[in-house]
Specification:
9 strands, four-stranded antiparallel β-sheet, mainly beta
Length: 165
């Protein structure tokens, strides 16, 4: 009797193994970041204002053996106001790429300073395979005399299988 139940169970479960095929996994993903980072320096009471823009297009290769990378875009305006956009990327097991940006604004008498005035660090978003996800981040300085200094980052993260387009 037990043999009949085992045989019936084997016959009923056998087709499931052939129907439920695993999804195709891509060994390599090309992640493309395209956008702009614009920095505005107010210039103070007696100085002139300045704007500087970096239109960037960066490509990163992620694999399941090397699933993490980070992209850094730095721009300076007026010799005093610097913005840093860092996007951390991680390839997840489901062929999805997690993208986590962080925009920081520094302002002092030179661009190579560590006087952090503002930062925007939102929660990471996932980017499915063959899709893009847009981001818009803004930071500004609220110190007296520098309260118009700001940075604006607008960019997209695209997750392509293989070598990409």
């Amino acid at each position: 009797m037990k043999l009949a139940y085992l045989t019936a169970a084997a016959v009923l479960l056998a087709p499931i193994a052939f129907v439920a095929q695993p999804a195709q996994a891509f060994n390599t993903h090309t992640v493309i970041l395209t956008g702009t980072l614009e920095v505005y320096d107010h210039g103070g009471l007696f100085g002139g204002s300045a704007t500087s823009t970096d239109a960037f297009d960066r490509r990163v290769t992620l694999t399941h053996n090397r699933p993490r990378a980070s992209v850094l875009v730095v721009e300076c305006a007026g010799g005093e106001t610097r913005a840093e956009l860092r996007v951390t990327l991680m390839l997840l097991g489901s062929e999805v790429v997690s993208s986590g940006p962080r925009l920081r604004l520094y302002e002092e008498s030179r661009c190579d300073n560590n006087d952090l005035d503002d930062e925007n660090w939102p929660v990471a978003k996932n980017v499915a395979l063959n899709t893009s996800r847009g981001w818009r981040l803004y930071v500004s300085n609220d110190e007296w005399g520098s309260y118009y200094d700001s940075a604006d980052a607008a960019f997209a993260v695209t997750n392509w299988p293989g070598a990409g387009p």
